[in-house]
Amino acid sequence: MPKILIVDDDAQLRSTIQMVLKLKGYEVIDADNGSTALKLARAALPDLVISDINMPQADGYAALAELRKDPTTAAIPLILMTGESDSAGMRKGMELGADDFLSKPFAMNALLKAVEARLKKQDVVKQTAEKKLAELRANLSLMLPHELNTPLVGILGYGEIISTCADTLQPGELAEMGKNILESGQRLQRLIQNFLIYSQLELLRADDKEISAMRAKRIEDVNEPLTLVARTKAQAASRLNDLRADICHGGVCCAEDLLSKIVEEILGNALKFSKPGTPVKFSVVPEGKLLKIVVADQGRGMKPEYINSIAAYVQFDRRQHEQQGSGLGLVIAKRLIELHGGTLLLESTENVGTTATVRLPMPA
Questions:
Q1: How far is 260 from 270, CA to CA, in rounded Å?
Q2: φ, ψ for residue 332 (rounded to 5)?
Q3: 91-104: buried (b, 16+ CB within 10 Å) or exposed (e) per residue?
Q4: 125-166 pLDDT tens trace
Q5: What is the CATH architecture assignment of 137-204?
Q6: What pLDDT score was predicted for residue 323?
């Protein structure tokens, strides 16, 4: 049964709550002040904390704030009990991360309903997290072996032929094998780079100083670097004739390499998931104080639920559609856009196409 920590300096109330919860089958531990409660919470990791606000040594607010700071206790739901009908106090509690309030005096039925509601909600959160973890494991088991082994097979296979049969191979054959080895190596390099970039971005999200420094970067004119990125990406996909580019002269608050990465990933997806011979439109125009970047294709599109489920290491319908990639590219682009204070909007219709709209701040 769930374990509940009761925190109140009123021994009689604490004893009554304990009795009621134990009769319902809950395991109960208790503390008479915030300091003791913090030690108990870290040691016992209860499923729920019910705490008074006004207590000696450390009040309910202080205990709540400390619990939320500690990664081991941050997710534990907490119900605050108070004898004050103070909206400002309730707001303070909610800002600190309280999950619910009980105003004293309260009926034990009200307490039990609040406990059941919090525990049920926590169960839903855990089930959702477990489902996502299971999906992540499935995606990794499906994607990683293929993405790592495929280029390695090419590199090792052609390497073995060259090392054992070099004297019998024609220059043209050697050149073709060398080209295949280079392409396989570049594919493997991109996969590793994306893993590293994604890890760095996840760490960066909690570093306000680094985010400010990132947003301070400037490009005075995006035309030349984005023209180069677009043409290079289209040429690599053998689709230079399909590219319809219209790139303005204007600035943006972003480093050149990071803006290039954003465009590479989004434009790369448009080229990969649409058929040769169909247009891929790439436009960059100012929109008020923002720079608007639009990439539109006439490819296979995405289901609405897929757009809301974009995440690292996730590829949709991989068993149905043979494709390369780790599923990290679009997530990296999205993270970079958000870290720069921008937005990414995806609009897609199955078998019609996808339009990605990026908005990033322009220099003042």
A1: 15
A2: -60, -45
A3: eebeebbbbbbbee
A4: 888 778 766 765 666 666 677 778 888 999 999 999 999 998
A5: Orthogonal Bundle (1.10)
A6: 46
- In the block, residue with structure tokens 């049964």: 1
Contact 52, 7 (CB under 8 A): yes
Tokens of 165: 């049969």
The residue among 294, 295, 239, 298 whose CA lies nearest residue 273 is 298
> Which residue is associated with the tokens 């499935």?
138
Three-class SS string for 161-194? HHHHHHHHCCHHHHHHHHHHHHHHHHHHHHHHHH
Phi/psi zone of residue 310: left (φ > 0), alpha (ψ -120 to 50 degrees), beta? beta
Task: Please spell the DSSP secondary structure of 243-298, one letter per residue.
Answer: EEEEE----BSS-HHHHHHHHHHHHHHHHHTS-TTS-EEEEEEEETTEEEEEEE--
**Other CB atoms within 10 Å distance of the CB of residue 166:** 9
Residue 175's alpha-carbon distances to 60, 152, 182, 185, in angstroms, are: 72, 18, 10, 15
CATH fold group of domain 212-361: Heat Shock Protein 90 (3.30.565)
Give the alpha-carbon dihedral of 80, 85, 89, 94, to 10 degrees. 50
φ/ψ bin of 25: left (φ > 0), alpha (ψ from -120 to 50), beta (otherwise): left
The Cβ-side half-sphere exposure at 317, using a 13 Å CA radius, reads 10
In the chain, what are the domain boundaries? Answer: 3-106, 137-204, 212-361
* Residue that has been written with the tokens 């319908």 in this structure: 317
CATH number among 3.40.50.2300, 3.90.180.10, 3.30.70.1050, 3.40.50.2000, domain 3-106: 3.40.50.2300
Instruction: Give the predicted TM-score (pTM) of the model.
Output: 0.59
